[in-house]
Amino acid sequence: MLTVCNRAVLPIAILAILMVAVMTGCEEEVGNGELSQGVTEDEILVGSVGPQSGPFAFMGSPYYAGMESYFKTINEEGGVDGREINLKVQDDEFEPDNAISGMETLIYEEEVFAIVGQLGTPGILATMDMVREEGIPSVYFGGGASEFREAGENFFPVQPIYDYEGKLMAEYAIDEFDADELVVIYANDDVGQDGLQGIKTGLEEMGREDALDADREISFNPGDTDFSSQIQLARDQDPDMVLLYALSDDAANILGDFEDASYEVPIMTTYSNTDDSFLEMAAPQAPQVMTELYSLGWLEMDEQALQPLNDAMEEYYPDEPINAYTMAGWVAAETFVAGLEEAGDDLTWDGYIDAMNQLHFTEGLAPEISYEPGVREGVTHMSVSEVVEENGEYRFEQVTDFREFGE
């Protein structure tokens, strides 16, 4: 077997030529075909960058356990066409500079075939130009920034894009909750601004701009600890529903201030908060407010759909929680593998990208994943869940079917 990826000591002129091959996705001769870097007769090496330590490890730990549990399950069944999938993860601690160095390690030193499930919007945005220029396939983002839609032909987002979710959130509020007047409380960052813009676009396309005016767009700065002024502004508007576009601790603290103000109104929040770990943060602060909390979701969470994940986690990672992050990691892995199966023997970067452009995948936890050249929207089918309390325990329960905006 002759490979151009071997970095043994060579004359400088030859080494320079080979470095060009490495930078463009080196190919090796295996059997009767050409394979891109990271692929051998018995292995497909993939990489990811995301937080495994630091304050955001609570996301990364179950996320990568879910991803690994899927790959281990596939490998136990013989892999994909006899090739096992092995994952290398670089810990970026949710820091963009660390994400850049981690991505360089994966592409140029580890020489992975693809990036799978990069986690964290700051790191994804920091490395996007590098990944685009190299042309290496990148499947699934652990984030929903609008820039992901325009990242490039070698990128395949799966999670819903935040501004699209905002459109659907507005539609659900109007159609399912008969809300005539809305208030939006949003983080003054890329996530919150994308969500707000989506809500406004959705209302405009529905002909319901009257449901939200500028006085009802209430912002806060991420990291704030006192939201009493935002709560009072919302109360003064007397809305039929509040749309809360905030993540994690911020969203939980805002709900706590709703509770402190004894202000109960239906609230709908982003899919990023549709998770048991969020309920564990929020419910102690806002036990009454939680009973009027709704959220969007994009995963099939019924018992039958989750059984393969539950079985795999019990076998490989019994000490890790099974939550929305675990499910997201599982979906990242199964989407990548669906692309491998579509590509068949053509495991070059171009071959894999062409296969993903033909993908129409409906067998996983997400209701539908499909792409075509130039279209990178992510999942567009979403449902609404409500928070249900039983014997002091809170859980999300799906209350609508999955649908797209405008259906």
From TrEMBL:
Q: Which family does it belong to?
A: Belongs to the leucine-binding protein family.
Designated name of the protein: Extracellular ligand-binding receptor
Task: Recite the lineage of the species.
Answer: Bacteria, Bacillati, Bacillota, Clostridia, Natranaerobiales
User: Endoplasmic reticulum: present as a keyword of the record?
Assistant: no
Q: Domain Leucine-binding protein, which positions?
A: 44-388
Entries under InterPro entries matching the protein: Leu-bd (IPR028081), Peripla_BP_I (IPR028082)
Sorted UniProt keywords: Receptor, Signal
Organism per entry? Natranaerobius thermophilus (strain ATCC BAA-1301 / DSM 18059 / JW/NM-WN-LF)
Keyword check for Signal: yes
Supply the PROSITE patterns for this chain. PROKAR_LIPOPROTEIN (PS51257)
Gene3D superfamilies from the UniProt entry? 3.40.50.2300
